[in-house]
Amino acid sequence: MAGYDEATLERLGADAAAIMARYPDPRSGLLPMLHLVQSQDGYVSPAGIAFCARTLGLSNAEVSAVATFYTQYKRHPNGEYTVGVCTNTLCAVMGGDAIWEEVTHHLGIGHDETTPDGKVTLERIECNAACDYAPVMMVNWEFFDNQTPQSAVSTVYRLIAGEEVRPTRGASSVCSFKQMSRVLAGFPDGRADEGVGAGPATLRGTKLARSRGWTAPSFDVPADAAAAPADGAPAAGQPQSSAERPPTTPADTSAATTQAPGSTPARPEKES
C-alpha cells in the first residue's frame, strides 16, 4: 500500500485488528482507526485514509466523509501540541476571549493554524466541557483550568521550549499529539489517573447534597408501569396506540398499506 513501509503496515495492521475485535461489525471501528493512523502521521493522511478503507472494506470517499465531519481528525499536518482556547459563553465572560487574543498575538497564528516550528496548532474551541473551571484551555485534550492571558501564554511558551508542562487535572504531564491520538484509538497509556480527576468545583454539588441529605428520585419502577403511561394511554406501538389508529386519509388505505403480510405491494397505475 502506497505511503507506508512494510514494517509500519504490519504494526498498524495488528493494532487495527485489535480495534475491529472490539465490535460486532468491524466497520464500527472506523473512528478509533482514524485516531490510529493519525497517531502515525500526525494527521489523517491520504495513506491513512486508504489504509482504513482497505482494512474495513470501505471506499476512500466513505472514510473521508467521516474524517471531515469530526474536528478531532486533522486533514493537514498538526503541531506537536494542539492548544484549544474555549471562547464559549461562560469561558468568554470569565476571560476566554482575552486569552484567545493574547495567545494569537504572541504566536502570530489563528484558528487551525500551526507555528512555523511545528510545535503548536491553535484552536478556538466552543466548549471544553469544564465550565466549573472557566476559563479553560486544553493542550492535547488535557485540562488547564482557571486560566489568565498571562498563564496561558506562559504555558504555550514552555511547550515550545520543550519543557514538561503539568495539566491541572488528569495525567501528570502533557504528551504529544501523536501519543494522545493513540490513546483516543483505544490504547491507554496508563496515565489518566496520575493527577486529580474531579476537583473541588466539580464535587461541590455532591458535597452540598450530602450535607443536606438530598437524594435523587428512585429509578425503581413497578413492572407493570412500563406497559402504559400514567394517564392510561397505551405505550407507543401497542394495541390502541397511535400506531394502531384507524385509517383517516387515502394514504392509510392505499394498496401499500392494506395488503396481507408477506405479499408484494401493488404498483400504482400510471395516469393516462
TrEMBL record:
CC cofactor: [2Fe-2S] cluster
Organism domain of life: Bacteria
InterPro entries: NuoE-like (IPR002023), NuoE_dom (IPR042128), NuoE_N (IPR041921), Thioredoxin-like_sf (IPR036249)
PROSITE patterns, per database record: COMPLEX1_24K
Bias kind Low complexity: ranges: 222-240, 250-261
Molecular-function annotations in GO: 2 iron, 2 sulfur cluster binding; metal ion binding; NADH dehydrogenase activity
One family name in Pfam for this protein: 2Fe-2S_thioredx
CDD domains the UniProt entry points to: TRX_Fd_NuoE
Ranges for region Disordered: 215-272
Family from the record: Belongs to the complex I 24 kDa subunit family.
Protein name stated in the entry: NADH-quinone oxidoreductase subunit E
Organism: Cellulomonas aerilata
The encoding gene: nuoE
